[in-house]
Amino acid sequence: MINWLWEQQAVICFTLLLLIIAEAKAIKTLGANTVYSLWLILPLCLIANNLPQDIVAIDDNSMYRYLVELDGTNTKVNLDVNWAWIWAIGMSIILCLGGISQWKIQRLPKTKSDPSSFNINLPKALSVHTNTQLSGPILSGLIRPMLLIPEGFRVKFTPNQQQLMLTHELVHYQRKDNFYNLLALIFVAVFWFNPLSWLAYRAFRRNQELACDETVLKDRKIEDKISYSKALLFCAEHSRHSFSIYSPYGEKNSMQKRIKNIQHTSVAKPALVGLVIALSSILIGGVAFANIADSSHSVRKLYTAQPVIRIEPKYPVEAARNGVEGHVIFGFDIAKDGSTDNIKVLESIPEGMFDKVAMHALKQWVYKPRIQGGKAQRQTNLKVQLDFRMGPPDTKKKTVKNSKPRLDAKAIQTAQLEKVRVQSK
Questions:
Q1: H-only helix segments in 217-342
Q2: What is the pLDDT of residue 358?
Q3: Residue 368 carries which DSSP code?
Q4: Region for residue 150 given its phi and psi (left: phi exceeds 0; alpha: psi -120 to 50; beta: otherwise)
Q5: Is residue 413 part of a domain?
Q6: What is the pLDDT of residue 59?
Q7: Interatomic CA distance for residues 412 and 284, integer angstroms
Q8: Fewest 10 Å CB contacts: which of 116, 146, 239, 376?
């Protein structure tokens, strides 16, 4: 999972930067609704970056070697395990905070109201409740959405303001914005370690409110815009809650931008919108093409087998007592979950001396799964050599490959003299 998250960062960072800049600079030119639609680029780019590829799995024939010393440690754990736990804990915390925010909304004391009492036609599936702790109306819930209205709503706001504010919430309801907010929260939870994801979440929520305002005030008179702006300012001044999921009134910087956007409403030109769609299509196509092009890289470069958990074998007592050194070469596969499988002894020197302990250790190794097209793949026909040594190379006492006794110069000279004496006799 950590490997997949890292592979997405280039696409995510580039796309989020474009969307954040668009939300900050392009709304006056393109309009809030057009910019809000551009957020669809993010999931499309992620899909394009993880398109399944029809690639024939290429076996990794590289030989990996590891040294096993008599005084070596027994377990080596890669830091990726720790990163995986940190990532999972961070994601869980964010999802829990989002759940708590939703729970707070549901736990607010509320009284059911009659939808027909308002000067607007509300859907029958949308229940209306009155609450004493809210400053403005809020749409809450996914499966059974409900509209929460502040107590004294009819007294605090004029009929025109009431209609405009309720229409704003209806736009959220019709576009299913709460569902998109949930997806955005999940995205932040998955990529919480990327600061751009947090900035993008705020920009997305702000853009969402601006788009609703633009829809509500379309073809409205200046008096309606002024009246609606006053209602928003009143809600911001009297806001008592700031929820991580529902915060249309509590964030004052967003409220100021909403007021400015209402004052300078712009309509995007069709030619400019067409250009933006074309550029967006080129971006998504480029990501998909780059994803396919990645398959041309060699296995050695992209799919190098790296153990996340490596258990070192224990040096056999008999071999250590006799000062025997050697090696074992294994052929094995890596399963989709990273575990080793189909282990076979290809070479053992001396034969049978280190096989058992080496096999027992290799069965406990865990590798990074090979990710291809967003899915874990099985790796086959890998080879690993475990070299058993008594100590550093300069202190070797006995090796298997060079087991013949070595004669120094003095010994050779003595042997030659003995040979001459024998021949002379």
A1: 222-237, 252-263, 270-293, 299-302, 317-322
A2: 92
A3: P
A4: beta
A5: no
A6: 53
A7: 77
A8: 116
